[in-house]
Structures are given as structure tokens and as C-alpha cells.
TrEMBL record:
<dbReference type="GO" id="GO:0016491">
    <property type="term" value="F:oxidoreductase activity"/>
</dbReference>
<dbReference type="InterPro" id="IPR057326">
    <property type="entry name" value="KR_dom"/>
</dbReference>
<dbReference type="GO" id="GO:0016020">
    <property type="term" value="C:membrane"/>
</dbReference>
<protein>
    <recommendedName>
        <fullName>Ketoreductase domain-containing protein</fullName>
    </recommendedName>
</protein>
<keyword id="KW-0560">Oxidoreductase</keyword>
<feature type="domain" description="Ketoreductase">
    <location>
        <begin position="4"/>
        <end position="188"/>
    </location>
</feature>
<dbReference type="InterPro" id="IPR002347">
    <property type="entry name" value="SDR_fam"/>
</dbReference>
<dbReference type="Pfam" id="PF00106">
    <property type="entry name" value="adh_short"/>
</dbReference>
<comment type="similarity">
    <text>Belongs to the short-chain dehydrogenases/reductases (SDR) family.</text>
</comment>
<dbReference type="InterPro" id="IPR036291">
    <property type="entry name" value="NAD(P)-bd_dom_sf"/>
</dbReference>
Length: 267
């Protein structure tokens, strides 16, 4: 990892910040992308202190021109990434009637279009080189559905479809694609998206414990090091995905019940 170049989006806080630090500890050169320049530079210092090399680039990933400009700068000044971690995401878990068109568009803008634009920018050089990796961080919403999060779930389904297609498309070129599905993670995400926490289906702390950002980052790190196709944490979600494929009505009923329970507890 000491000779690897890793690009991490949403790296100023939460999972992205922890992921940048984890790769920094392994000695990678980490390029950190996010909007908040001050927090981004703080994370970059932490990476350097941990023994890695860090470059911080403040960029609004909802802005295509800024995103492509940052990608061009990375390619021209530093090089082609060995690993791109598409982690940045926004979106409140709200009922359809409480979600405006602009908010829905923003949820498609990040994570999906941001991930598409960066992946599209770096993929040609990775293909020419014959190596590289792309990780997509998403949630169980990519494979399960529940009430009061329709726009969010749609955006996550877009990420999953894009990533799964790339697994087939890019494998012959020597590029691996890892989909990282994480349950609830204790990060500033819920502070930045008020009203979302109450709409998380309540599966219970034993079945689906809340992860720390560091646990999420470690799962991502190990998964990409081993070039896995899927990383699912906590493991209960893998079982739910299989059950959903086999018994969709039963799982849908149980998830609705869990969501109703969570809503009642939040109220």
C-alpha cells in the first residue's frame, strides 16, 4: 500500500475521514475530496501524522465541472489512482410528500452522478494501465426498501446498478469493483440530515449493531485489499438480501414493521 494512490470522496468527516486515515496508516498517498476545506485539511494532517501522504482538494461533488476539474488535476499532477473510493453521499430519509424535487435531484447528484463522473474520468487510464480498483460505499437501501425513504433508496439503487454493471464491464481490463454495504454508522451524517435516524428500520442492537466509522473503514480497507466483490456489515444484511430475493413479500412485511417500530420510538 505504500506505493498506492487512493482517492476518497466525502473525506472530511465520518466514513470517508476514517477511510482516509486507515489507508494513510498503511502508507498510501491519499487524495481527499470534499467541500469543507478546513475539515479536509485537518484530516489530511491526521493522515500525514499516521505515516501516510495526503493531498486535500476542496470540491463540490454536485458540480460536474468542479468534479471533472479535480479529476484532471489529480491525473495531471499526481497520477492515475490505484483505488477510487466513492463514499460521498447526501440525503434525508423522508416520506415522498415531504421530499421536494430539488432535494431528490441532490440525492441523485451525490452519490450517483458524483461517482459516475469521477469513475468515468479515471477509468480510461486504469483500463490502459490494466489495473486499478473502484469501491462504492452504500447502504442496505441498495437491496432493501422500506417506508419514508423513497428518494434516498432510489439514489442508492442507482449506485448499486452502476457498480454491479462495472463489475462485469471492467473485470476483463484488470479492474476490480467492490460494493461496500454498511448498516447504520455513527457519524455526523444524521446530524446533517435531521429526521433520518427515526426512519431507520429497527432490527435490534444484537442483529444490527451500530458501527463506528473506524469499523466501517476497516471493513472497506480489508475488502478492497482482498479485491472482494461485496462487503456487507453487519452480516445480518447479507441474510436479509438473500431472503428478500427468495421471499420478497415476507421480508417487505417485516421491514415495514421494523420501520414503523423505529418511527414510533423516534416520536
Amino acid at each position: 500500500m505504500s506505493s498506492k494512490l487512493v482517492v476518497v470522496t466525502g473525506a472530511s468527516s465520518g466514513i470517508g475521514e476514517a477511510t482516509a486515515r486507515r489507508f494513510g496508516q498503511a502508507g498510501a498517498h491519499v487524495v481527499l475530496l470534499a467541500r469543507n476545506a478546513e475539515r479536509l485539511e485537518r484530516t489530511a494532517r491526521d493522515v500525514r501524522d499516521a505515516g501516510g501522504k495526503a493531498t486535500a482538494l476542496a470540491v463540490d461533488l454536485q458540480n460536474r465541472a468542479e468534479t471533472l476539474g479535480a479529476a484532471a488535476r489529480i491525473s495531471g499532477d499526481i497520477g492515475t489512482p490505484d483505488l477510487l473510493v466513492n463514499n460521498a453521499g447526501v440525503g434525508r430519509w423522508r416520506p415522498l410528500v415531504e421530499t421536494g424535487p430539488d432535494e431528490a435531484a441532490a440525492m441523485i447528484g451525490v452519490p450517483y452522478l458524483a461517482a459516475f463522473n469521477l469513475t468515468r474520468a479515471f477509468a480510461p487510464a486504469m483500463i490502459e494501465r490494466g489495473s486499478g480498483g473502484i469501491a462504492f460505499v452504500t447502504s442496505p437501501a441498495s437491496y432493501l426498501a422500506w417506508p419514508n425513504a423513497s428518494a434516498y433508496i432510489a439514489a442508492r439503487r442507482a449506485i448499486a446498478g452502476f457498480a454491479e454493471s462495472l463489475q462485469s464491464e471492467l473485470k476483463p481490463a484488470g479492474i476490480f469493483v467492490t460494493i461496500v454495504v454498511l448498516g447504520a454508522v455513527e457519524t455526523p451524517y444524521f446530524e446533517n440530515n435531521p429526521g433520518s435516524r427515526e426512519n431507520i428500520p429497527e432490527l435490534g442492537p444484537r442483529l444490527a449493531p451500530v458501527l463506528t466509522a473506524e469499523q466501517a473503514a476497516e471493513a472497506l480497507f480489508q475488502g478492497t485489499e482482498q479485491k472482494k466483490r461485496f462487503v456487507v456489515k453487519p452480516a445480518i444484511y447479507r441474510a436479509l438480501f438473500v431472503m428478500n430475493a427468495l421471499f420478497p413479500k415476507t421480508v417487505a412485511s417485516q421491514v415495514r414493521r421494523a420501520a414503523k417500530k423505529a418511527k414510533k420510538a423516534g416520536a
